[in-house]
User: What shape does this take?
Amino acid sequence: MADAQEKRHGIEDLLRVMARLRDPETGCPWDIAQSFTSIAPYTIEEAYEVADAIARGDIEHLKDELGDLLLQVVYHARMAEELGRFDFADVVDAITRKMIRRHPHVFEDPSLRAGFEKSRVWERIKAEEKGSRETGEAGSVLDDVPVALPALTRAVKLQAKAARVGFDWPSLDPVLAKAEEELDELKAARADADGGAASMAKVVEEFGDLLFVMANIARHLKIDPEAALRDANLKFVRRFGKIEAALRGEGRSPKDSTLEEMDQLWDEAKAEEAEKE
Assistant: This one.
């Protein structure tokens, strides 16, 4: 919390700061030169920074990262205002109306709360908002899954959309069987690869199919595959760090050791973690 004696800035202050930064005559040259396209990667990056702070349980850092993400919203809104399309107030109004519209069990009829999650009312409301895409009257049920999502996340969302109209495995077992099938196909493609572009393209295709099925397994298990992979990455970094530390204690580095030595240290790090669980 900020010191009580300090002036606390509000959203209006942030909007004024962004307007000043974007002022074509007195603003920051870098900020003036930006566009929706150039800022979009930063928006995605900041969302990941928020997720990272949450994963690490760093609430103090989360405050800063949420501020960085909010700045991205303010940035895009300011650029849209300069084009005469909409401003930050329109963004706030739109999301507020959407939340009220999508929660009739809270804002209209509290008696709907108990069965709301299973009622599919949410999907119906979203379909109405998007021009009834999910009813097949226009476009595809998959149209509103953003292409820019991380690939694993998008795979799960695509599969979930298809599942809502009946295109889904009935249980996990056939999905696991499909994963084994895809792994066999990847092995076959790898065995047939001759180094040429066409054969390597087939290997890439089969690898993609395997990842897509793994995303489907995650969906059936109600696991977030991105979160699971992030945890696996953190575990790898942690255990490899212990390998480096052990070797450093001997005056060596990984490049000065053998794979067998590092495997042994990995097993020791793994066993140490298991004892603490």
